[in-house]
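Weekly structure sync, notes
Attendees: PL (lead), two postdocs, one rotation student
Agenda item 3: pending single-chain targets
PL asked that the sequence for the first pending target be pasted directly into the notes so everyone works from the same version. It is reproduced below exactly as submitted, 256 residues in total.
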Amino acid sequence: MKKSITYIVLALALTIAMTTIGCSKEEESAAAAPKTIMIATDATWPPMEYIDENSDLVGFDVDLINAIAEEVGITIELKNTAWDGIFAGLANGAYDAIISSVTITEERKAIMSFTEPYVNAGQVLLIKNSLTGVNGIEDMNGLKVGAQNGTTGDIVLDEYPEIKRMAYDEIGFAVEDLMNGNISGVVCDSITASEFVLGNENYAGNLKVAGEAFTDEYLAIAVQKSNPELLAQLDEGLAAVRASGKLDELVAKWLY
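Predicted structure, written out during the meeting:
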C-alpha cells in the first residue's frame, strides 16, 4: 500500500514537473516572438500613401517605414485608417504609430511624440488653369477653397477669414469639386499638389499651383508619448535610411 502511494506521488510530481517545463517553454517562445508594431496610414494621399490598381498599399511613406523597420529589425503591420479619428486611435492604443504625411505642429506635440522630420512639404494653393489673376492664397478672398478636414491645409485656412473654407473627408473629393467648378481652389501640401498637377492623367494640364508654398511643413512619424522605446527605434532606423542614401532614392522615386 505504501509502495502504491509512493508511486502515485512520484507520478504526480513528474506530471507537474513536465507541465511546468512545458509552460516555461511556451512562455519563453511567446517572449521570444517579436511584437508586431501596428502603424496607421490614411491611404488617400498619393504619392505618399495610396491604394494602387492592384489594391496594394503603396507610396513614399510605405516604402520609408518598411526600410526603417528593416534597418532596426522590427515587425510592422500597416493599417489603412481614415484620417478622421486617426490621432484618437493613436491616443487610445489602437495602433502604435502613424506614418501618413503627418505635419509636426505645436498642438500635436502636446499629445504625441514625433520622430525627426523626413520631408518638408509646405502648403500650396491648387487652382484650375482657367482661373486668372490668382498668384497665391491671398488672392482667394470671397472664394470657396477646399481642404481635407483636420489636416494642416484645413487648419491654415483659419488664418484667412475672408476665404470660404470647404472641408472634405478626402483630398480627392476636394480636387473633384475643383474640377467640377464647385469651388475655386484647394489647399494641400506641395507633394500632394504635384501629384495631382503632374502625375495624374485626369488632372494634368487642367490644374496648376498658384505661386509658392506659403508654409513650412515638416513631416514625421507620430508615436504615442508613452512609448519612448519605439520612438528611439524609429529615429535610429530613419537615421540609418538617411545615411545609406535610401531616403534620397525614395524622394527621387516618388516625389521629385
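Discussion points:
- Confidence is low (pLDDT under 50) at residues 1-14.
- Residues 36-120+218-254 form a domain with the D-Maltodextrin-Binding Protein; domain 2 fold (CATH 3.40.190.10).
Action: rotation student to compare against the earlier draft before next sync.
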